[in-house]
Design goal:
Shape: elongated
Largest sheet: none
Low-confidence stretches: none
Number of strands: 0
Distance between the termini: 44 Å
Strand content: under 5%
Mean pLDDT: 76
Structural class: mainly alpha
């Protein structure tokens, strides 16, 4: 990049991005929460409650 010292690899086969369904957890993403795996049922309920409270405000 700067001064030509960085070279991107031509290919990459490793895992990238979030787990399936993580992008639907917008509130958690905006609050900077870690999304390493799908939420537990209790966490999912709390997240939906926060999202609903944000819409009501």
């Amino acid at each position: 990049m700067v001064f030509g010292t960085w070279r991107n690899p031509r290919t990459y086969d490793g895992p990238v991005g979030f787990h399936k369904g993580a992008s639907s957890r917008l509130v958690d993403l905006l609050l900077g929460r870690d999304l390493p795996e799908p939420p537990s049922p209790a966490t999912a309920r709390a997240s939906r409650a926060e999202e609903a409270a944000g819409r009501a405000a």
